[in-house]
Specification:
The chain is mainly beta and 63 residues long. The chain has one domain: SH3 type barrels (Roll). Strands 4-3-2-1-5 form a five-stranded antiparallel β-sheet, covered by helices on one side. It is globular and about 25 Å long. The model has no long low-confidence stretch (mean pLDDT 92). This is DUF951 domain-containing protein. Pfam families: DUF951.
């Protein structure tokens, strides 16, 4: 799966704060994602993150 810094992802389970959308802050073997509602950060291995993604919202790549 092609994930880039700045992408928004919605996971299968929502965060306890009620947030559904996360922003990708770091990409590589491990990903750092930040909850857009409360700002909590998680570090996840690529395999675990790819399994838990429901949708990916990518900003326009017009530039």
């Amino acid at each position: 799966m092609d994930l880039r810094v700045g992408d928004r992802v919605r996971l299968k389970k929502q965060h306890p704060c009620g947030g559904e959308w996360w922003r990708v802050e770091r990409a590589g073997m491990d990903f750092r994602i930040r909850c857009e509602t409360c700002g909590h950060e998680l570090m996840l291995p690529r395999k675990k993150l790819e399994k838990s993604i429901r949708t990916v919202d990518r900003p326009d790549a017009d530039s």
